Amino acid sequence: MPKDTADEAPQSQNIETDFCIIGAGAGGLALASAAAAFGQRVVLIEKHKMGGDSLNYGGVQSKALLAAAKRAYAMRTASPFGIRGVEPLIDHAAVNHYIDDVTAKISPNFSIERFTGLGIRVISAAAKFVDRSTVVAGDYRITARRIVIATGSSPIIPPIPGLADVPYFTNETIFDNTGLIPHLLIIGAGTTGLELAQAYRRLGSRVTVLDNAHALGAEDPELAGALITRLSDEGIVIREGVQIKRVSGTAGKIVVELQTNAASETIEGTAILLAAGRKANIADLGLDAAGVKVTQTAIKVNAGLRTANSHVFAIGDATGAPRYAHVAGEHAETVLRRSLFRLPARAKARIAPRVVFTDPELATVGLNETEARAKYGRINVLRWPYHENDRAQLEHATDGHIKVITSKHGKILGAGIVGAEASELIQMWSLAISQGLNIKAMTEWISPYPTLSEINKKAAFRYFATVPSNPFLRKVIALLAKLG
């Protein structure tokens, strides 16, 4: 009697497709939906949660936490508006519920059901290359014309003695916290570290941030310094240039031993958060079998995001690019243009805006002053302060300024803003740089009054501030005046 095949272990199923995308984070999802919209057969593989870090551990949760913290801060600081400031009663469990609720409302946009409805085959399993054009995932063997690695990144766990023996948070676990942390120690003064530092400080915690280099060291020192001063004024202790020798303790009592230039010391806190950077998720993918080359930290790609294997692309954090969802999305567009339309598209991470979502925000795009001087030599640096903006005055948001970099002939090279709504204001400069505009174009639009966006136009006009002092121009103006 033949054996019932229903009782046998499932056999590997072969799938042939146009695109096989490994990773369902921001970049992978953007590419999958766009490729499917153009009639391509798409297989999307995700071994963990749809939406990746942006939805589940990073962008959404941290910004929701910051939004809650901003409300608490507004209650304390309402007196300039004629409203008595009060100390808010913070229910940390309710804050955590709010974060979960926001995530739940956004999650359907990233769900398996939504992408299946778009005609995309979604496989929930770990992926591994077996040759240059074939990937296995669970019970499936996928052969694809193009394979795209979009596996994102994970928190770096620094090799600090004793760390493995104490409880610690990362950005993947801190949002599970439901209570007050009396004193939070944060290792790492980058974007994530400082965003969460301000959020927890405003929600009632003491916060100490430790870094072996400079806080926001990748950003323009002038703009970063203005933000760090504001954070310090709120009571966040930021220790730069310290070496962490050892961590010890238990939950509720964490001890960090430091070495500074002067001496050794210890700091005691109740919890510790690791925000010391991220590493690309490229282990266990079988990249050798695919002929994909890697560096110590990421997958090697060319300007078109193609790997050493011409059938394989890599996008987003897996390439070591700036770790933003919008950069991964731009990478997805680059791959689509190259693979479907044969266009010479190139990744443009250098002109992607970068934002620290603190209050005030810090947003930059293009070259900073140091980079511009190194590349172009003579440049123009244009500034305008928030305190000379009427909307900033009426909103009591006068901290900060804008800084714009142009070539000597006025081509816009970069811009940075530290101040209220910087993440919104920077978008105009992002457009200008992407289109290669001259600063003159930034003076030829009408800004409604009163708005913060007026600082963009005011800064642009600074380029022409010295023009009337030009001797030749003054003679021309004098002659025209006589003729008139």
Automatic annotation (TrEMBL):
**In the UniProt record, does the keyword Protein transport occur?**
no
Report domain FAD/NAD(P)-binding positions: 18-332
Which molecular function GO terms apply here?
flavin adenine dinucleotide binding; NAD(P)H dehydrogenase (quinone) activity
Q: Where does the Pyridine nucleotide-disulphide oxidoreductase dimerisation domain start and stop, copy by copy?
A: 353-459
The cofactor binding remark recorded in the entry reads:
Binds 1 FAD per subunit.
The protein's required cofactor(s) are namely: FAD
Q: Is Oxidoreductase tagged as a keyword?
A: yes
Please tell me where FAD binds in this chain.
K63, T151, G152, S153, D317
Q: Which UniProt keywords are present, listed alphabetically?
A: FAD, Flavoprotein, NAD, Nucleotide-binding, Oxidoreductase, Pyruvate
Q: Give me the residues that bind NAD(+), please.
A: G188, A189, G190, T191, T192, G193, L194, E195, G277
Which family does the similarity line name?
Belongs to the class-I pyridine nucleotide-disulfide oxidoreductase family.
Please state what the protein is called: Pyruvate/2-oxoglutarate dehydrogenase complex, dihydrolipoamide dehydrogenase (E3) component
